[in-house]
Design brief:
Elements (H helix, E strand, L loop, with lengths): L3 E2 L2 H21 L6 E6 L3 H16 L3 E2 L8 E6 L4 H12 L2 H6 L4 E6 L5 H10 L5 E3 L7 H10 L4 E3 L6 E2 L12 E5 L1 E2 L10 H5 L3 E2 L2 H13 L4 E5 L15 H10 L6 E5 L8 H9 L6 E3 L7 H6 L6 H14 L4 E8 L6 H14 L3 E6 L17 H24 L5 E9 L5 E5 L4 E4 L9 E9 L3 E6 L1
Parallel strand pairs: 1-8, 2-3, 2-4, 4-5, 5-6, 6-7, 9-12, 12-13, 14-15, 15-16, 19-21
Antiparallel strand pairs: 10-11, 17-18, 17-20, 18-19, 20-21
The protein binds S-adenosyl-L-homocysteine and iron/sulfur cluster.
């Protein structure tokens, strides 16, 4: 499939809409700037899309506020990966109704992955009549037009086109963090894991042009960003749609060569496409940090097959083992699902034994959540909520033990960390190459620099240390 890139002409049209909206807002708010509140749920991909939406809003003249009660425009950029997340969003949309009653000119928009599902769109139409703009994952680039339509028309705006997905370049992102930037390298996903809604809502996998990514990376470094996180649902298959293999390794090496004091991270790696060459590349690059997020989902081969993951336990362990040999201080983190349909307790025990064998530094454990339109949702033998939650707790306890032991082994060792800010206790917070949080005392002028910190007190999820 040829990737469809939104043309410059189409984007210029959207920039024109930004200007039109800006002058309408000047009439509506003659004495002050209009105020926007935006909130993104879910993955880094969503965050990066939210930053472009914020970029558009800045072009329309909006200032950003941190409370929805102060805003003239409220936007929720949503996540559909699990039901729990969806219900939380519906609850939060429900709370916005009261602001409509006190602020007549308020515009409310809902976008992102939830909206791309027919049943959610219908529910928003039917039960949340005060939501003015609903736009899907394939209508982000036309967002300015939809704001214009909402400001000038009488109808609610529903823009949820069906599409395999597009790429649009050149919309300035308003980054949410001054030190760390997400840099998307691909969008969508082709893997169709049987539990996952992502391919249904984000479209087919499409890689950004290599030279566009490198140019963005250079610009981020020139602007002073200290961490560049390359993101995609499956970064390892970057460029496969151009007919290339291992292009991701080449991209890492090229970004690694950009002069400057910065670090490179990436996520997510899919075990089926995570090549040994990628591990070699990580080991050889100077700026690529020693952390890989490699979701295994289940430690049992039958369940992995049912999940359509295209690797088995042995393959996963061999990649993890190779990574540890090549990069002895590497941290491997992962996502796991407990209670996939048909998963027996014995099969779940294979997941527990895998985490002991690989020794992850941390894990995101999820209880399986049936998603409309996925194969797994139609499978028989769904595991009860009670059993899922039992397995969830058992896995967390096992991981806690692994993480405590790993942390303890870091005592008295010194790690280079990017100093990110100050925590609630008034201490500085840094992150090691392994993406582990380390806190210590120091001056504000260290924020945004790399410092060597000696671990004094290793706790399970955070290290306490001393500036060297
Ligand atoms: N592309 C990434 C993950 C994207 S979704 C990858 O393949 O690794 C993030 C995580 O959410 C997944 O790794 C999975 O563990 C979890 N997840 C996805 N769908 C889920 C579902 N239906 N129920 C529970 N967890 C789910
Ligand atoms: Fe979902 Fe699988 Fe694609 Fe990850 S690789 S986004 S889990 S379908």
């Amino acid at each position: 499939m040829a990737t469809s890139i939104v043309s410059k002409v189409e984007l210029d049209e959207q920039f024109d809409y930004c200007l039109k909206v800006k002058s309408l807002l000047k009439e509506k708010y003659p004495t002050r700037a209009p105020r926007a509140y935006t909130h993104t749920y879910g993955c880094q991909g969503n965050v990066a899309e939210g930053e472009r939406i914020d970029g558009y809003l800045s072009m329309m003249g909006y200032e950003f506020v941190s409370e929805p009660s102060e805003a003239d425009f409220i936007l929720f950029n949503t996540c559909a990966v699990r039901e729990h997340a969806e219900e939380r969003v519906f609850g939060n949309i429900g709370m916005l109704k009261k602001y409509k009653e006190t602020n007549e000119g308020l515009l409310i928009a809902v976008c992102g992955c939830m909206v791309q599902q027919e049943h959610v769109k219908a529910r928003l139409k039917r039960s949340f009549k005060y939501v003015d703009i609903v736009f899907g994952t394939h209508a982000i680039h036309t967002f300015p037009q939809h704001v214009y339509e909402a400001l000038t028309g009488d109808e609610r705006v529903f823009a949820v086109p069906e599409s395999d997905g597009v790429i649009f370049e050149g919309v300035p992102s308003k980054h949410t963090n001054d030190l760390k930037a997400f840099l998307p390298i691909s969008y969508g996903c082709n893997n169709f894991c049987t539990y996952c809604v992502v391919p249904l809502v984000k479209g087919r996998e499409r890689s950004r042009r290599y030279e566009d990514i490198v140019a963005d990376a250079k610009e981020l470094v020139a602007k002073g960003y200290k961490e560049i996180m390359l993101i995609g649902q499956n970064v390892n298959s970057y460029g496969n749609d151009f007919g290339e293999t291992n292009l991701f390794s080449k991209l890492l090496r090229e970004i690694d060569e950009i002069p400057g004091d910065f670090i490179i991270r990436f996520m997510t790696s899919h075990p089926k496409d995570c090549s040994f060459e990628l591990i070699d590349t990580m080991a050889e690059c100077k700026k690529v940090e020693h952390h890989i997020h490699l979701p295994f989902q289940s430690g049992n081969d039958r369940v992995l097959k049912e999940m359509n993951r295209h690797y088995d336990r042995e393959r996963y362990i061999s990649v993890a083992k190779y990574a540890k040999e090549k990069i002895p201080d590497i941290a491997i983190t992962s996502d796991v699902i407990v209670g996939f349909p048909g998963e027996t307790y014995e099969e779940f025990c294979d997941t527990v034994s895998l985490i002991r064998e690989v020794e992850f530094s941390s894990l995101y454990v999820f209880m399986y959540s049936p998603r409309v339109g996925t194969k797994a949702a139609a499978m028989e033998d769904q595991v009860s909520d009670e059993e899922k939650s039992r397995r969830f707790n058992e896995l967390l306890a096992a991981q806690e033990q692994v993480a405590t032991e790993r942390s303890a082994a870091m005592k008295d060792k010194t790690y280079r960390a990017l100093v990110e800010g100050r925590n609630k206790a008034g201490r500085l917070n840094g992150r090691t190459s392994q993406n582990i949080m380390i806190e210590f005392d120091g001056d504000d002028n260290l924020i945004g620099t790399f410092q060597n910190i000696k671990v004094k007190e290793p706790l399970t999820w955070i290290l306490k240390g001393e500036l060297q």
